Automatic annotation (TrEMBL):
Protein name: NADPH oxidase 2
InterPro entries: Cyt_b245_heavy_chain (IPR000778), FAD-bd_8 (IPR013112), FAD-bd_FR_type (IPR017927), Fe_red_NAD-bd_6 (IPR013121), FNR_nucleotide-bd (IPR039261), RBOH/FRE (IPR050369), Riboflavin_synthase-like_b-brl (IPR017938)
UniProt keyword terms in alphabetical order: Cell membrane, Electron transport, FAD, Flavoprotein, Glycoprotein, Heme, Ion channel, Ion transport, Iron, Isopeptide bond, Membrane, Metal-binding, NADP, Oxidoreductase, Phosphoprotein, Transmembrane, Transmembrane helix, Transport, Ubl conjugation, Voltage-gated channel
Organism placement in taxonomy: Eukaryota, Metazoa, Chordata, Craniata, Vertebrata
UniProt cofactor(s): FAD
Membrane topology: Multi-pass membrane protein
Record-level GO cellular component terms: monoatomic ion channel complex; NADPH oxidase complex
Primary site of residence: membrane
Length: 294
């Protein structure tokens, strides 16, 4: 009980520290990005924070994954408007108004954190598999941004040499901001003649007959009709056994980090594949599974 009270006092003290909202960006499909600054705030990739907005509720704290990179001079979260609290935050930030909002009109925000997750270990491996399902893609925004900053600054000191990224979602439109990030990374990697550094596959798990017809008609275009990326969107779900076997063949004798942010069912599947495709020989390929469930 004493330790719990100490922890509550620390959280109360941290929540009283001043947080400044420097920018509010409205993304399509009612998603907003809050860019903030706080004195002494230090983060690692994939971490999350608790956020309270007294203008909406004086007691409610809500967890959000950080989508900024540690190298940036601010920290950010993406909030999709799906409930009463997020709707209240949307209105408190003036996103329901057409005119430009002055900074002093933005609501006060309290932040507690950041708190660590498994994604922080990404840079401990030479090869990684990143798997994001639906909203579980948000931690990898931070990871991919940070990889890019490190790569631009000093690629020779970067242990991470290859990323296999898988994004599974029912509707990519809800995360259009993430597709924009992938477009930027794709273009920058091609400019540096290292397009092979990041291999990504986007799987659309939900569509209707009208959409399917539209996809077929535009399949031959240079860029994907849904995401605008050169990599075409795939339909259905990955054959994980084939994916693991292919990666194992391409990286013999490696320790490969498998990172998931998604549902428990997918975690069980990836865990079994990581075990079955790892060799008994210590010098063989080994898949190390790390998960973050929601």
């Amino acid at each position: 009980m004493f330790l719990y009270l100490c922890e509550r006092l620390v959280r109360f003290w941290r929540s009283q520290q001043k947080v400044v909202i420097t920018k509010v960006v409205i993304h399509p499909f009612k998603t907003i990005e809050l860019q903030m600054m706080k004195k002494g705030f230090k983060m690692e990739v994939g971490q999350y924070i608790f956020v309270k907005c007294p203008a909406v509720s004086k007691l409610e704290w809500h967890p959000f994954t950080l989508t900024s990179a540690p190298e940036e001079d601010y920290f950010s979260i993406h909030v999709r408007i799906v409930g009463d609290w997020t709707e209240g935050l949307f209105n408190a930030c003036g996103c329901d108004k057409q005119e430009f909002q002055e900074a002093w009109k933005l609501p006060k925000i309290a932040v507690d954190g950041p708190f660590g997750t498994a994604s922080e270990d990404v840079f401990s491996y030479e090869t990684v598999m990143l798997v994001g399902a639906g909203i579980g893609v948000t931690p990898f925004a931070s990871v991919l941004k940070s990889v890019w900053y490190k790569y631009c600054h000093d690629a020779t000191n970067l242990k991470l040499k290859k990323i296999y990224f898988y994004w599974l979602c029912r509707d990519t439109h809800a995360f259009e901001w993430f597709a924009d990030l992938l477009q930027s990374l794709e273009a920058q990697m091609q400019e540096r003649n290292n397009a092979d550094f990041l291999s990504y596959n986007i799987y659309l798990t939900g569509w209707d007959e009208t959409q399917a017809t539209h996809f077929v008609l535009h399949h031959e275009e240079e860029k994907d009709v849904i995401t605008g990326l050169k990599q075409k969107t795939l339909y259905g779900r990955p054959n994980w056994e084939n994916e693991f076997k292919t990666i194992a063949e391409q990286h013999p004798g490696s320790r490969i980090g498998v990172f998931l942010c998604g549902p428990e069912g997918l975690a069980d599947t990836l865990n079994k594949q990581s075990i079955s495709n790892s060799e008994a020989d210590p010098r063989g390929v080994h898949f190390i599974f790390n998960k973050e469930n929601f």
